[in-house]
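ERR on first pass: missing label on line 2. Operator R.T. fixed the label and resubmitted. Corrected input:
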Amino acid sequence: MEQSKALSHVFIKGIFSENPVLRLMLGVVPALAVTVTARYGLYMGLAVFMVLLASNLAVAVLAKFVSERAMLGSSLLLIAGFVVMLQMLMQAFVPEAAAALGVFLPLIVVNTLLLGRAGFSAKSGGLRGLVDAFGMGLGFVLALVLVGSLREILGAGTWFGFEVMPESFQTMEIFNMAPGAFFALAVLMAVANKIFKQSKGGA
Amino acid sequence: MWAIFLSAILTDNVILARLFGADPILSKHKMGTVLRLSGAVTLVMVVATALTWPLYGILSENGLSYLKVLAFMAVIVLVSWLVAFIFRGLGTGAIMANSGILGVTLLNVLDGLSFWDSLVRALGTGLGFLVVLAIFVGVQERLETAPVPESFKGAPITLITAALLAISFFGFNGIG
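pass 2 clean. output:
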């Protein structure tokens, strides 16, 4: 019972109270770069989710054979291998998504979320690492969709491509560009800070 | 070539416009650390570009260009290791996991730049990284004493500053 409780805690905290992007500031680069629309955020989130699951397991195994000094370099190469596979799969089955993510798809290799969590997985063993990867991965998808939604609604007046704002709504072009990315993420981080700091104080 | 150099520093700034390698601005650094970190990153960018550009030629001649991410990453890991020996005290992680390095080497071959143009862009990108990080040393110092709302403390206010800085960098449009 204690064990399962701890596992579910590991899972839930990755989505909310330790959300990788909004709370731990891991994987900030893709959260900024591709989230022009909610759909792109979802693509990137899912891509990272898949690599994260694979790499967390593989790195936990790798840690048994490789010395600590060589760990970072070899994890990076291992992740690069998974990313190449993912890139080819995406180009074959969802070419639209692969094109949308562009150079940021290969840049998943150096995503700080993968490296940060690979470390956790190497320390705490396979099962916990996998559960952690699930929670963190879902949290990452959630955060990217949120940032993408905010930017798409304000920048284009649509959400997942559907018109959601009234005719008279003046789109804010800035949200389609880099400054809007910083701004949207900042606001969402502040909201997350507000929610989770308060709940901690109440408990 | 001059245009490529200037736009890599200013209009296409690696952090503010391309949004690569934005992680270091989120934490507080001393000026010395920033200089060494960006020096190391710039050096790796240039050396790695000098190696990956011909490597990509070899790969695509043999129809292996889909392996470029893996191959480039291997080069970057090795170069970062060597550079970390020169810049003692910097973790290799801060260098090799900087997404600007992989980003610029990939963009150089994807945009089909010539060898020398690629090197110039790598150098410019590194300097652009230095410029923004150096600005943020000052920004973080000011933020410490500024009356920031509780939930905006830390990363959020830094990102807001980055947004304003990115807007002000739009002013450089048209220089190159």
